[in-house]
Amino acid sequence: MQKIILTILILFYTNFTFAQLNIFKFATIYTSINLNNSLFQQGNWQMVGDELVNLTRENPYDFSVNIGVRKLARFDYQSKPGNFYDGKEKYHSDNSIIGAVKGLEFKAQIELKRQQGREFENRHIFIRYLGDYYTLKAEQRFNGLADIKYSNLDTRLRLKIGNKINITAGVMGSKRPLGYEYNAIKVYQESGKPWYQLAYDYDFTDQYYYVDGDLNGQDDWYDWYDWKWFNPDGVEIAQTDQEFYKYHFGKIVREYTLDIQDSLGMITELSLALGSTFYHYGERFWLHAWADVYPKRWLEEVDEEILNNIELNNDRIDYSLGFILGTKIYKKRLGIFIEGDYNNMWAREFYSIKAGINYLFF
Question: What Å distances lie between residue 32 and 65, 67, 92, CA to CA?
Fold first, then answer.
């Protein structure tokens, strides 16, 4: 909550400070809160001795809190989604180096979210400036669910061909986790350590128990047995290894992977940046497409000890693709759209795609 209040104060203070410069003219500051029940879980029951134990996993309610400010011109195919911005608006065109108008545009949004019991933060901040002969885009993105984190500064020369095509060339400086090239859990498994040792390392504990089937007071080889699991606070969270492995161990693996990634630190690299965009809009058909390729890079020096645990692929070619296509046919009654983006950057893949059909009855 303190982070939310501080962010609101910073946004309002920034707005007041730069009001005289018209930086925030036509910009929108917004906040929103969304609450809803979590995904329903089917009942999971198990007999432990003579007792029927409820093993159903209950997720707390889902929520999202969005805080942001935006000043982005809409392309002709875009329309404002409603009377108010709530932070759920996702525009693939934000990823393009070429905006809809010349001049300064920006967006800064922070989302705090819980989904099916997992809490994470999403953050997307960028400033884009489009001139007649050059482009500039500074961007920071943090996706807590997909484990995407980077900061970029992209500067390019711009060649405009007619009203539809742009060719750009320049350099991009990036700062991102060095651990993207390191498969932490694979290295852990190859070390020969058992899976439950990783749980112990994160202060989870287990307790052996057995069911005395013949009531002789002894743990015979034919008696049923298993382990109960407890979280670091000592609360029982699983009645069996299988339940713990299914519902809880994945979170430990994720935490371990992120810890190793953080321990390796960040790396800075400079990349050659080449791009092109195409934009056509008509009442019945529109297409907006862009492609950016980073075929060459120069990395800062990495400590020799870190290189022993990681293999940097300097020969890889990073790229980012995006497109938005829409058409209205048969007297504008039938509409078809498809849009998406795909990114293969720093040995990470992240993408989204959406498609649909609309038919209007008169």
Answer: 6, 7, 21
Could you tell me which of 321, 290, 287, 344 has the C-alpha nearest to residue 98? 290
Residue 197: C-alpha distances to residues 105, 203, 216 (Å): 50, 10, 33
User: In angstroms, what is the C-alpha Rg of the chain?
Assistant: 26
Percent helix / strand / coil, the chain, rounded to 5: 20, 50, 35
What is the value of pTM for the model shown?
0.74
Q: Tell me the three state secondary structure of residue 65.
A: strand
Task: Write out the E strands in 51-117.
Answer: 51-54, 62-71, 103-115
The position carrying tokens 């901040």 is 125
d(CA 360, CA 336): 12
155 in Cβ contact with 271 (< 8 Å): no
Closest CA to 225 of 247, 206, 197: 206
Say which residue the tokens 């934009």 belong to: 279
Position 20 scores a pLDDT of 44
**In which element (H, E) is residue 50 found?**
none
Q: What is the DSSP letter of 92?
A: G
Residues of the chain with pLDDT below 50 are 1, 4, 9, 16-20
Say which amino acid occupies 296. Answer: K
3-class DSSP assignment, residue 268: strand
State residue 152 phi and psi, 5-degree precision.
Answer: -130, 150
Pairing of strands 45-48, 348-359: unpaired
CA–CA separation, 361 vs 241, rounded Å? 56
